[in-house]
Design a protein that fits this description.
Shape: globular
Low-confidence stretches: 463-468
Helix content: 25-40%
CATH topology of the largest domain: Metallo-beta-lactamase, Chain A
CATH superfamily of the largest domain: Ribonuclease Z/Hydroxyacylglutathione hydrolase-like
Largest sheet: 6 strands, mixed
Radius of gyration: 24 Å
Mean pLDDT: 95
Structural class: alpha/beta
Amino acid sequence: MIIEQIYTNCLAQGAYYIESNGEVAIIDPLRETQSYIDKANKNKAKIKYIFETHFHADFVSGHVDLAKKTGATIVYGPGAETSYDIHSAKDNEVFQLGNISIKALHTPGHTLESTTYLLIDENGKNHAIFSGDTLFLGDVGRPDLAIKSDLTKEDLASMLFDSLRNKIMPLADDVIVYPAHGAGSACGKNLSKETVGTIGDQKRTNYALRADMTRAEFVEEVLDGIAPPPQYFAKNAMLNKTGYDTFESVLETGNIALSPEDFEALANHEEALVLDVRPQSEFIKSHIPNSIFIGLNGQFAPWVGALITDIKQPILLVTPEGKSAEAVTRLSRVGYDHTLGYLKGGIDGWLKAGKEVDTLESISAEEFAKHTNISELNILDVRKDGEYKSMHLDNAQHFALDFINEKMNEVSRDNTYYIYCAGGYRSVIAASILKSRGFHNLIDIAGGFGAIKKTDLPTTDFVCPSTL
């Protein structure tokens, strides 16, 4: 028996390759599927099943492409409805895979069709669960992503309470837990950095599995502090239900080298967004006017999904050399399939063609701290709500990057703004968006709050109201 977790840090997502006696199951595959096929072929095995734990909202799964290429059966949990052929598993239905078996445990709550897959080994022993977004390490899935007119997030949270206690907690403590996500995913609140655990560990450490917890307490705690879901979640879930263009076709049409002249023409006439995915230090020094920065060196795909509101937006890429295919691939993982091409020769080619560039002013935290009138400056803290509440610069205005499109009326083009995040990645994203909207008096604080804390600048710590 082979179990391999294939973890993608950008999405904080775990897919799984399971093999037994020449038969393979893939759980929650990524959009690009060739690696699974290559792995099975290398082992002279055949992909038999593609198990989906639920309709994913945070990425586009590769199940449809993989099934077309291999003839494997796509399996969803009870009640799943799609535009393509699937096997909708019954609760407790068992699927044979070589010498092992996989049992579908219907665990609604995160979504209605959410299903945990229990792997039973060659000796008939419960070995592991692939829990999807039902159970994470340290948390459970958010219950606000599958709301119908007659179903509230409280209803779903109550379902999740039952699923955990009736289907997962009765399993033996040594059963391994393989979740769909780890820290950094927006599918939960406080996910662990670890990506593999056990039922016993979770019973001891996961707040949602407390044995003495009442249903009402569970619902309240699970819903407390959940930020609104990113706007692309519903769009990705729909793609996963209805299908999508093949990954290969998206890569073929998107990974095209464009001369500066052709690039500029498409930008002007196709209403294409120019997306610069280089490191932020390079964007700061020189970039195409009105381009948006979201670097490949950070959580690229989730930020694209959160900030580019039209999933069908035509996109032109400015990439580091040799990184165009990677950029198109990572865009496709969250359903942004309309890349028109990338700038041949990068910014150097743009400059050689005599084209205009822009810059972003950036100063160190030490230089910023030399201001004698900090209290009179306009300072934007673009970190998440919890980060800001934990500690922030005195006089800093909270301007969370997640919701920058909704917050534009809170800033003025007449003011000069100093912008910081945690380490310098998000502040440059925010500055690029503001610049593209006509805000030109912007100064990035390099190194973000991590660098600011090393200065003598005054900060405000969060004080829990219960201690006052």
